[in-house]
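Chapter review: from sequence to fold.
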Amino acid sequence: METKLYTTDEVSAFIQEGRVMLLTGMESAIRKLPKGKWIGGTSPYFMDTVGKVNDDLIMVDDFTDIAKNICFDHFNEENIGNLFEHQFSNGFSVIVMPFDSPVHKSFATRALHDIPGMFENPLVGYISCCHLEDFGKAKTYSAFGIDGELSETNAVVLHVELNDGLVARAEIMNFDVIDETTPVIKFPVTSFVQSECTIDGKSANIVDYLLEYRKQRGQVVPLIAECGGALINRDIREIDEVNKTVSFFSPAEAGDEYRMSKPNGDYQQLFNEGLSQKSNVVACFSCTSYFGGGQFEGKSIKQNGVYAFGEIGYQLLNKTIVTLEVDKS
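The token string follows.
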């Protein structure tokens, strides 16, 4: 089935057929769907030939034809460490979490260090979102199709065992680059909120540095680090000048060497150039930072998918594209 936006009546028919799916739409649309073999979450932002904002349609990622076996589960902040207890030996997992929920925070800070089985199979997914103008006011949800429940607190997970002869990959693309003219920033702990740090090896406060950076450059950009050959952004959510803390949309990792990022040309062009080189994508997730900052609404997009408040490629990411790709082994 083609990954695209469908009406709730069309999606209901797919569910009745027993199709295995990830479904994304706004709360009012998802609540109309029957129970079945699906998980989902909320977002009004989509890649569907062009960038679209829509409250009534549902984005369908259909895994039926590649799935040999499936397993559904849901987790809270206390048991998220058991995320991979039921994963298959050859497959992938898809996860959706409500924004700012305790499980969102627990997963993000533990993913790289404290969740057994993390790198045995690809893990992809997203953090549910709402309209950007409603940020901080509207609720976001995950949805568990097995019982039809929407949740503000639970992560929902679909584990897929692939058909024989297939293998899955999770790939990320980050179009920012490291600004080598800026100093190296290191934090002593892994956290969404940071204060004390070292800057080029000297003790400092990150707020003081960012305020001076903004004064000189006119804006603050995400921090960026090279991790295992990949460039990882840590997008800044808020600078609290009173309490001298900075909050991020994904946790800055202890010991990683961060610098300031540097935009690298036209995001829409880079976005499409990167996606046009891919032919085996079965799911694609990206960040509302691209949709809003890049003004993607109405503009041509090479791959259909979902924009959200964070994308997951093993760990929680910001301002990247995550693709799940399935190849012949």
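Two observations follow directly from the output. The mean pLDDT is 95. The two ends are 22 Å apart (CA to CA).
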